[in-house]
Design brief:
This protein is mainly α and 456 residues long. 67% of the residues lie in helices and 5% in strands.
């Protein structure tokens, strides 16, 4: 009765919001301890599917709290307090911890030296926290079944955005609902030339569609029973997601991933993959033939034209976007040479400006705090030590994925990480929330699966 009186007083008093927040926090932590896999899947949905990073946000004083960060923190507490396996990932975990420590220290140095404001340093470094899912996967999901479910959940997140991308080609009513903060996720012919009647859609789930693309195909080729048809459906939706992103770097990355899987996957997988590709290409050719015969090619023309530029380097070199990236890369390299040891810190001004759309057709010339070449950006964030530590983390993970005794699933997961490493030369993937999350999940799955095989 006393507890009921206290709760009733709290609900009717001026502090009711704080009490309800406390009750929700306790309930959330209880869920995280009792159902860690379900909460981890919820994290993938919140941060890596349809919703941009500012979709679920609350203001607490000067700090903007994001729901996905709260869920990640809850899982982190469970991983520390009640792990199912006592491990921190060996050399890969040590390298990742070193990278995060270096990035944090260099951001602090940037603030102390006056190169970057505290809020800019915090906001541009905070996506790195999602690499921490690597340790959560290792400590909370040490069995093959939970790892497989986690990967399938990530693939579903990507597939959902692929279906949404297709639906949005035929309707404009959903654009405002799923548009990112600052208009960075959905483009039309009015905002970007060469799209024709199509929309260029890049939702957060694209990260999982890309990194898990070849893993999903390998699973569809090797699994049996009802899950096989499910995987083919997810593969189709993921392919739509990648195609409608109009990201040429991803189209090239998929081809590179194919080469890696063919080389490292073994004879049996190579045979199945080539047969599957032949069937898939036949379907694509029949689709294009049907569209051409119907005389309704205007929707496919932008895809064909953009794909054609991949094999015409001269045409790409004439694009303004490539010239802009060359200029920002040159300026960033000059800044790195002046600060090779500690960089300038995350979020610091390195001397580049760009026109940013604030919404309602308003454009503002502002400081560019990101860099398309993410490997060079790591040098800006934390100098040579940060680049070496991050490269060591991914290097160890890839060595496990492609080392002796590898499985076809590990090979395909490693190909996904390699694809992001390649694309990161031209697109900001290593410091974006959903890509940090996707890399952490896949890297954790690779290391955990290798540990499982060693203990078997």
């Amino acid at each position: 009765m006393l507890v009921e009186v206290v709760v009733a007083r709290g609900l009717t008093g001026p502090q009711s919001v704080r009490l309800l927040a406390l009750v929700a926090a306790v309930a959330g932590m209880a869920l995280a301890f009792r159902f860690p896999l379900a909460v981890a899947i919820a994290l993938l949905v919140i941060a890596g599917s349809l919703f941009h990073s500012a979709y679920f946000t609350w203001s607490v004083g000067p700090v903007q709290l994001h729901l996905e960060e709260i869920v990640l923190l809850a899982l982190g507490v469970v991983a520390v307090v009640a792990p199912k396996r006592q491990t921190w990932g060996g050399a890969a975990g040590l390298a990742l911890a070193a990278f995060l420590a270096i990035a944090t220290f260099c951001a602090w140095l940037g603030v102390q030296d006056g190169r970057v404001a505290v809020d800019d340093a915090f906001n541009w470094a905070r996506p790195f926290a999602f690499y921490g899912i690597f340790w959560i996967v290792l400590r909370l999901f040490p069995d093959a079944r939970s790892l497989r479910r986690l990967l399938i959940a990530g693939l579903v997140c990507g597939a959902i955005t692929g279906v949404l991308a297709l639906v949005m080609q035929f309707t404009g009513s959903l654009t405002d609902v799923f548009q990112g903060s600052g208009g960075q996720q959905i483009y039309t012919q009015a905002t970007q030339a060469g799209l024709g009647g199509l929309k260029r859609i890049r939702q957060p789930g694209l990260a999982f569609s890309y990194i898990l693309f070849w893993w999903s195909i390998v699973a569809a080729l090797t699994w049996r029973g009802r899950f096989r048809m499910l995987m083919w459906a997810l593969v189709t939706a993921s392919a739509l997601n990648i195609v409608l992103s109009f990201n040429r770097n991803m189209w090239v990355g998929v081809l590179v991933g194919l080469g890696l899987v063919l080389i490292l996957g073994g004879v049996r997988l190579r045979h199945r993959l080539l047969v599957g590709l032949a069937i898939g290409l036949t379907g694509v050719v029949l689709l294009f033939t049907a569209v051409v015969n119907s005389g309704n090619t205007q929707r496919l023309d932008p895809i064909v034209e953009r794909a054609a530029t991949v094999v015409t380097p001269r045409q790409i070199g004439e694009e303004s976007s490539l010239r802009d990236r060359a200029n920002e890369t040159a300026q960033a390299w000059r800044t790195v040479k002046a600060n090779p040891v500690f960089g300038v810190g995350a979020g610091a001004d390195y001397g580049v400006r760009f026109n940013h759309e604030e919404g309602n057709g308003i454009w503002v010339n502002t400081t560019q705090r990101f860099l398309h070449n993410q490997w060079l950006w790591l040098l800006l964030v934390g100098g040579v030590p940060a680049l070496v530590a991050f490269a060591a983390f991914l290097g160890v993970v890839l060595a496990k994925a492609w080392g002796p005794g590898r499985t076809v699933s590990q090979t395909a997961l490693g190909a996904g990480i390699a694809m992001i490493c390649l694309s990161a030369f031209v697109m900001p993937y290593l410091g974006v929330e959903e890509f940090c999350l996707a890399i952490g999940v896949v890297a954790g799955a690779i290391v955990a699966s290798r540990d499982l095989a060693r203990r078997a």
